[in-house]
Structures are given as structure tokens and as C-alpha cells.
Amino acid sequence: MKLKSLAIAALLLFFPFSAALADEGTLNAGDTAWIIVATALVMMMTPAGLALFYGGMSRSKNLLNTYAMTFVSYCLASIVWVVLGYSLAFGPDIGGLVGGLDNLFLKGISVNSISGTIPTYVFVVFQMTFACITVALVLGAVVDRMKFSSWIVFTILWVIFIYCPIAHWVWGGGFLSTWGALDFAGGNVVHINAGVAGLVLALILGKRIGYGKEAMFPSSVALTALGAGLLWFGWFGFNAGSRLAADGVAASAFLVTNTSAAMGALAWMFSEWLHSKKPTVLGIASGAVAGLVAITPAAGFVDLPASLIIGLVAGVIGFCSVVILKHKMGYDDSLDAFGVHGICGIWGALATGLFANPSITQGAAGLFYGNPGQLWIQVKSIIATALFTGIGTVIVVYITKAITGGIRVEKEAEAMGLDNALHGERAFELD
């Protein structure tokens, strides 16, 4: 009984203190707790969810290499972010293009620093997880054929010179935010950015040996489906966490995220069923991710009916991009980084300009709510992002080439499989 009384007394003391802090417009314990959880969810998406999703789709001889490159992306981007990246993305604005260097090594930030209603350290780590997964998404376009050493150099350069400026444009006070572009959780910053970069890198690297001439079966669709489930789970932190508060808008973002993912999975499944006469597990998993990608920029701005439309269209255009467009165009985007993230990210950004509902987030209205100008702003933001990413990625690739002496593995290593050739390991010991 004594312990119970002490616990009740402690709670009575704690809650008034928390309320007082919230009233002062400083630290809010509920918001802080939620964003810490959301950060953990987004962290899981890269070295667990995406690694399994991509690893299962790669060929068995390259599964571990795909996992290693995904895992090392998280490690490298984590370090780059706290040393330099956060300052470039969220430091004092320089001409609307990039942040200043005031926060190198997180200088000027302490345990008492507050961003909104959460500790700045929590905000830093939450945003770090976005940088980590964005560069890892690029990998999907080039698995099976890129040197591990070159991927390390590319990752460091790309996060610094491509990801950080675009994050600043949209979320750090840069010119896209002054235009009024709407990107709740990363349509431009994450998906269009990664998708376009992946396409550029795939075109420069060239096609895999035997592409279009021999079957290239996934190593494990079961792993891919498991990865998709983990991505879906983590995406609640990705989208609802981007509100940076535990409130009704976060709850709405949570709801529409799940709805769009489910509709995307069904739309892809039925599209494939009609086209190929069989609904595949890989298609269902890919459709869920397509729906998640498309709702990302819109999550805090649209209502439930809009999320159904966004997911439906994402599933259909994702399927068409991967199954029809890629083969007609002839490029080798190994795991469809551009087809899923680039194309569906563009659709999501446009859909935000169509369906943004001011009753969800005040001041955010799209075409169907009397603001046709918002759609044009979204179009301009897509063009700006794609141009900068495309040109910038070309430059980063050629700098990487100069540093590492080439970015593609030797033919013998590619034929043998990168797990054995580069890492001296095998994913499955079957004999």
C-alpha cells in the first residue's frame, strides 16, 4: 500500500508539471513520447524493413550484398547527419537553397534545446532517419552490379549534396516552403528525390549481365513480403510522426496512411490479376508500398475519401510503371526504385495539390477546395526537385567514379554473385 500511495503521489506531482510545461509552449511530454516512438519506427524501416524488402527481391547470390548496402546506408547517413547534414538541412537559411554551418557536430544544441514542443535532439534523430532511408531507397535501382566501396562514397556525397539541400528547400525554410509547396512527410524530399536518383544511377551503370535475356528470380518473396509488412508498420511513424505532435492531425495521417496502403495493395493485385491472370504476393507487397509512397506528401492534408483515391491510382500506375513502362523504355531499374518511389511520389505530390483539405490542416487547400494555384505550385516543386536531383546525381556519380576508379563490379564478380565475390559469404547454406 505504501508503494501504491507513493506512485499515486508521484503521478499527481508529475501531471501538473507536464501540463504547466505544455501551457508555457515549451516541452510537451506527450508529443515527446510519441515522436521518440515514431523515430524508432522509422529507424526500423531501413536496416530491417527495406533490407528485407530489397533483399528478398534480389537474386540469391546478391541477397547479403543488398542487405549490407542497405545497412551501411543507415550507418553512413547517421554519421553524416549529426556531423554536417542536420546543419545543412535545418541551419540558418542561405538564399533559400541550403542551411548554414552553425550546427556542425550539433553545435549550439543541448539537452535543454526545444524545437516546437519536443527536445531538439529528438527532432534531429527523427529527421536523421529520413535521410537514412532516402539514400537507401536509391539502392533499389542498382543492386547486383555496383561496387560496395563506390556505394559508400556515393552515399556520403549524395546525402550531403543532394538530400540535405532538398530537405532544406521543403522543411528547413528554403524556397519551396516560401512558394507554399505542400510535402507533409517526404513526397519531394524522399520519394521523388530517391526515385530520380535511382534512375540516373541505373542508366549510368548500365544493365545487368543477361538482363532481358535470362530469368532473374527473387531470392525470397517471403522475405520481401515480411519487409513490406515492416515498412507498412514503420510508415505510421514516418507519416503520423511528421506532425511532430500527438494530436488530431497525426491521428488523421495515421488513418489515411493505412487506408492508402491497403487500397494500393488491392489495386496492384487486381491490375496484375487482369494483366497476367495471377495475383502474386510480390505484387500485393509492392502495391502496399506504392500506396504508402503516394500518401506520404499528402498524409497531413487529405481526408479519408481522398486517401482511397490516392491509393487506388498509386496501385495502378505503380503496376503499369514496373510491368509495362520499364520494359518498353528498356532501362534496368533492378528493384523498381523509380517505378514505385519516383512515379508514385510524383502522383502523391500532385494529389496533394488536388485533395488538400483545409479542414484537416488550416491553410492547406488544393484544387478541389477552391485553390487551383496549389496544384501549379506542386508541379513546380516536382520539376525543381527532379531537375536538381537528376543533374546533381550525375555529378555525384562521376565524382564517385574519380575517387573509386569506377562504380561497377567486374564481370566475373557480377557473374559469381556479390555475396561471395565482395563479402565472402552466402545468404543460404543449402548444401
Count the DSSP helices.
15
Broad structural category: mainly alpha
Number of domains: 1
The fraction of residues assigned to DSSP E strands is under 5%
- At CATH level 3, the topology is Ammonium transporter fold
Overall shape: globular
Q: Ranges with pLDDT <50 over ≥5 residues?
A: 1-25
Helix content: 55-70%
Q: What does the largest sheet look like? A: 2 strands, antiparallel
CATH superfamily: Ammonium transporter AmtB like domains
Radius of gyration: 22 Å
Strand order of the largest sheet: 1-2
Structure description:
It is a single chain. With 431 residues, the chain is an all-alpha fold. It has a single domain (35-419), classed as Ammonium transporter AmtB like domains (Ammonium transporter fold, Orthogonal Bundle), CATH 1.10.3430.10. Helices cover 70% and strands 2% of the residues. The protein has 15 helices and four strands. It has helices at residues 2-23, 29-57, 63-90, 120-138, 148-171, 175-179, 187-205, 221-240, 248-276, 281-295, 304-329, 337-355, 372-404, 411-416, 418-423; strands at 93-94, 98-99, 114-115, 118-119. The strands form two sheets. The chain has a two-stranded antiparallel ribbon. Strand 3 (114-115) and strand 4 (118-119) form a beta hairpin. Helix 2 runs antiparallel to helix 3, helix 5 packs antiparallel against helix 7 (187-205) and helix 9 packs antiparallel against helix 10. The protein is globular, with a radius of gyration of 22 Å. The termini are far apart.
